[in-house]
Amino acid sequence: MPETILTWDKLLSKKRFETTDKKYTSDESVRGEFQRDYDRIVFSSAFRRLQNKTQVMPMPESDFVHTRLTHSLEASVVGRSLGRIVGKSILERNPILAEEKNIQEADFGDVVAAACLAHDIGNPPFGHSGEDAISAYFQSDEGQPYLQNLTDAEKADLLSYEGNAAGFRVLTYTYPAHCNLPGGLSLTYTTLATFTKYPKESLPKVAGTKNTSEKKYGFFQTEKAWFNTIAQELGLLKKGNESEVFYHRHPLAFLVEAADDICYRIIDFEDGLKLGLVPQEQGMNLLRQILNDDPNRKSSLTFFDWKEEIGYLRARIINKLIEETTAIFLQHEEAMLAGTYDKPLINEVSSKPVLDEIKDLSIRLIYQNRPVLEIEAAGFEVLGGLLDAGIKAVFKPESRHHRKLAALIPPHYLHLQETATDYERILHICDFVTSLTDQAALSLYRKIKGIELPRMY
């Protein structure tokens, strides 16, 4: 019989992607299983590369502008607070979790923090426009011929390329050239499910859905069996028909989404203010409106630098939003467990009108700022060019030119089993392009196009 309601005793599993017996024992009094997840992500090469991937400004010259790395770290800090506050209440109502499963308040924080830390780990260069660039290549005349032998679902993965699915692949996929032990970083099932904000495959598309978890997809065809295993282990509620890998969210995924929303709404806006893209007075007034301070309240605190005041306002705002979103989560906890709640928590905070105004202003003045658009437009050419070169190197190796291109790609992206399908070969090249930092992608493109010659030592 399928589950009809989620239960925390199943949702909080320390089982992880390991297929061999452990050679060691883990002392959870020192470092819990979910904290191990966090640590593994921190030490991964994919996480390190986020330091040179776009958050607000592509390839920023200013050292205070956020990258994907700093954004992910800040989101994980917010996520840890969200998880711990929620965990405390859940444990008070479910003491059996501590008694029989050794689940502590900190475990909730560690799960959400780890998932937040990884939430952008699959993003390609040049921000979200990088996803659009990869999709555009496969929709183009250059990319279409390579899709002929693919299934409809495999084509959908590439025609609407999704960084969230690429992230799940980073966390769970092991390249054959690297190791014979599958499972990627070998994270716990709970952390992987919490990471997956869109627990569905690319097809079917849910047109016009109001459910936030159905707007995108969370894993490629190569990893859908992994996610299905996770979902069944944790008792996630099924959606769609039996043949579809389509589930309701793990409840803690709502906290990951909230942490990301809080950080990019407030901190991206802070970057825009400090860069002079948002008018100072207008921006500061909006931030103050979120706090709803009494204008007559006297304060002994005086700022002599308005940029330092932004940091003070940001800290207070984030604290307020943490308190509100955790209260909203706990209010809707039963509905989440029953699969009847599916919208962003931030949509219900008291300051939503002001946050929406900040979002609209950010889109208009920051994300659509001319230099940003120019670099993102160039990113289409760069990523499209790299994809085309990489795929030709795989599918047309008889050409000397293409063999030279293949020599520039790390060998583990080209080493596949003889039974590998066209889809798997294409996905390996997408992995390579997605893994590149903004600067590395631009540099490689210039070299293969002859725009910039490498230095000879």
UniProtKB/TrEMBL annotation:
<dbReference type="InterPro" id="IPR026875">
    <property type="entry name" value="PHydrolase_assoc_dom"/>
</dbReference>
<dbReference type="InterPro" id="IPR006674">
    <property type="entry name" value="HD_domain"/>
</dbReference>
<dbReference type="InterPro" id="IPR006261">
    <property type="entry name" value="dGTPase"/>
</dbReference>
<dbReference type="InterPro" id="IPR050135">
    <property type="entry name" value="dGTPase-like"/>
</dbReference>
<protein>
    <submittedName>
        <fullName>dGTPase</fullName>
    </submittedName>
</protein>
<dbReference type="Pfam" id="PF13286">
    <property type="entry name" value="HD_assoc"/>
</dbReference>
<dbReference type="InterPro" id="IPR003607">
    <property type="entry name" value="HD/PDEase_dom"/>
</dbReference>
<dbReference type="Pfam" id="PF01966">
    <property type="entry name" value="HD"/>
</dbReference>
<feature type="domain" description="HD/PDEase">
    <location>
        <begin position="64"/>
        <end position="274"/>
    </location>
</feature>
<dbReference type="GO" id="GO:0008832">
    <property type="term" value="F:dGTPase activity"/>
</dbReference>
<dbReference type="GO" id="GO:0006203">
    <property type="term" value="P:dGTP catabolic process"/>
</dbReference>
<dbReference type="InterPro" id="IPR027432">
    <property type="entry name" value="dGTP_triphosphohydrolase_C"/>
</dbReference>
<dbReference type="InterPro" id="IPR023293">
    <property type="entry name" value="dGTP_triP_hydro_central_sf"/>
</dbReference>
<keyword id="KW-0378">Hydrolase</keyword>
